[in-house]
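Quick one, T. Sequence first:
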Amino acid sequence: MSSEVKSHVLKNSDENFPCPPLSIRESEKPSLFSYWGDISLLREIGRNVAVVGVLNPSEEIVSRERKIIRRLVENGFTIVSGLAQGCDTVAHRECLSLGGKTVAFLPTTLSNIYPKENKGLAEKIAERGGLVVSEYLSEARSHGESIGRFIARDRLQAMFSSRVILIASYQKGEGDSGSRHAMEKAKIYGRSRFVLYRAEDAEDPAFGLNRQILEDGGTVLTQNVLDGFGNIF
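Structure tokens:
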């Protein structure tokens, strides 16, 4: 890792800790952050857009996601995701390729990046002005605790973003759960929820959660809707 990127720790009692909105319950607020990169990115929630999705997207889903990331970066938004395989990785990599800033929330410590294949990506995110951040200084003591940390990571993506975009995910019981947890917290936190969806996706199980979110008040992410996010400069 580049010597220019250093590890830091902030506690919620520190003056420059990026506090979540007051509407967040105290029990859900993070108590500390261990991080590489620019922690100030978490203080600009209006600029942050979370992008979540399946671990195994098809080439067509990846192509559609890249177009969305490009538009967001062109309009000055910071891309927030969870460094997981699949849609998360696409979001981070595409953002970096376009010269944008991206935030990666981890379910593990900085010394044990998950998945291991994305350690280099995490380092690039920090080196290029982004942020890699964890709530943990020690490893999980059990499998149950480890699973809980993945769910806890998902809430942070919604907590520190103004909008959450679901690229694609299966409905409950059929596949990925991380996207579902993130979208559930987005609703609780009052974040705007958007889903990638068109008529051709109706029979595709990879868009099962997308359909559920639409039925629950989410918004289809069309080009016009995306343009409506505006340019924040």
